[in-house]
């Protein structure tokens, strides 16, 4: 009889372990997620209720992805012209509720006191003075707004109106070496600081000055993937798993996204059809406890 009890308890332990493994992980990464473009089956924003994406210029081109099977392959080489000569993707439309009609509106405006964050994977060997993601006019790095760039001495640039121009350079770490790297930026309005990450590691930081300043660029610009805000001086890079949040990510969340260099699909991090993990586990354990009580009575 003792042997039979041991077998039952071992089976129950296996069931509990399986349930715990099945609990959705990384669920916090979907909190305040506004944009997720993974280029699987196209360039649509996969976040329900988020801003729609649309082809801004050109025809879509894809390559092998870092996370999943596909990435966006952008080959813009235009200079001062406002229209990219390859393809680019618009997130929302100029002046909408995402990009903002003025400096207080939208995700980049001062009304969003939580700030915002972006994360993506980039592969490029280009060193030209070009932008591949952002909302600002790249005719000058001092224009207000932000961009991810491939310029020889900078990777992330931002400027708030009347504030300091910031240029973060990750090329010494290999950002333009032709292999995949994860680039992250966290614009935290609670402290007016900007934390930037290269391959999941926080290396270089800056500020939003003047304090409380906006990173909004213009009601004439949307946020573009593969190009700068208006489309001028757009560059060449492969981009994958582009994500934007309307809050500041934590350092541990950036580490989760890097996932030891493998990346992480945000579509697989949680499911709204499932309850919160704590509720899920407690309910499961309650059911197992009742079953155990019944089995014990039968075995005794």
Describe this structure in words.
With 300 residues, the chain is α+β, with helices and mostly antiparallel strands. The chain has 2 domains: 2-21 and 276-299; 33-268, Jelly Rolls, CATH 2.60.120. The protein contains 3 helices and 15 strands. The protein has helices at residues 2-21, 251-258, 277-299, and strands spanning 33-37, 53-57, 62-64, 70-75, 88-91, 116-123, 131-134, 145-149, 156-159, 165-168, 181-188, 193-198, 201-207, 223-225, 236-245. Strands 1, 3, 4, 6, 11, 12, 13 and 15 form an 8-stranded antiparallel sheet that branches. The protein has a 7-stranded antiparallel sheet with strand order 2-5-14-7-8-9-10, with no helix packed on it. Strand 11 (181-188) and strand 12 form a beta hairpin.
Model regions low in confidence, pLDDT < 50 over at least 5 residues:
4-25, 270-293
CATH level-two architecture of the largest domain:
Sandwich
Strand content: 25-35%
Number of strands: 15
Give the SSE string.
HEEEEEEEEEEEEEEEHH
CATH topology of the largest domain: Jelly Rolls
* Main sheet attributes: strand count, strand direction, barrel closure: 8 strands, antiparallel
Radius of gyration, in Å, reads 23 Å
Distance between the termini: 8 Å
Tally the helices. 3
In CATH, what is the class of the largest domain? Mainly Beta
Compute the average pLDDT: 84
